């Protein structure tokens, strides 16, 4: 933190750092350190308070910027030319910059200004640093940042660059996420048959340094997709938990089974009757072994790390955790190698990292929905005309006639529309009759 403070103070200077050995680094004598007497009329030369505002939220990359960077990148231009010309028989005939691409030559293709390795974009030199910063948003560890980035992009040396970037991230180093090793689970929990069937529920807190509305966090994790849900709360009563679950279930539906520890919120009769009313079974972990609810314990470690980052950045907890949750849901999980979002929704999440549009949905459900919308559109115009005529006729019958209607509180547009519709309808009926 001290180095971060120094670098913030020096931001306004253009300087270079030169190493000087201790033997040549003479300390100042006492006379040169002795302050001169200050007179009252001398303008204050105290250092102004420097505030370095570093934006905490990174903006996504505009498509135009990515497009231009791809077109102007010397490495990608050389690669594009090589792909169009065809690859030589041996690697020796290649330019040095293209050597890393030689063994992947069968996977490379071009599309407009872009070059793809399979379905992943090869990022231009000028934007690689920005893409790493975007993937490292919310300060996930090295493995998760790499997974997130490699899902969409590739370039030679991507892993080493991500490693170097996170090694120099002050926040990650102060949290030291990489230092701890975790023992492997003795009895891995088998995956349920599908998403949102078995959920782990727990309460974290109280957080002593939190604002009153963030003292507790109620958390829920899907055992299959690893999708997390979270709500901060002032208290952690059964009512709070039931309110949280009702809100989440309104979006995702009811699960079949919920796993909790033996907290009083979960052993109360109110909680039991809430679950019973929705037909949800309840499993409790052993009193002496709360870590048995492994899926949620793992999520809690990541959550604590996120909260620690928010404290260090003096950022609001709720906003920081909300942003982090999106990144967490979009990142492939270590257990399933797929993102929670994809396992729950069956499609990929669009995030700030995406440049190319997502592929169209092709499931039978999507095709059915698109087909239904198309049919309803063609039906819509005929139904609209009939509705307008019906309303107009009703209006005329209730009043004495169209002339008197004008004096009533009837909207002109509606009446005229109805008249036109009536004429059109009559004409079409005559045509049909003829
Ligand atoms: Zn970081």
TrEMBL record:
It comes from Mugilogobius chulae (yellowstripe goby). This is Gypsy retrotransposon integrase-like protein 1. Residues 191-348 form the Integrase catalytic domain. One of its GO terms (biological process) is DNA integration. It comes from the Eukaryota. It holds the Pfam family Integrase_H2C2. PANTHER family: INTEGRASE CATALYTIC DOMAIN-CONTAINING PROTEIN, PROTEIN CBG26694. GO terms for molecular function: nucleic acid binding.
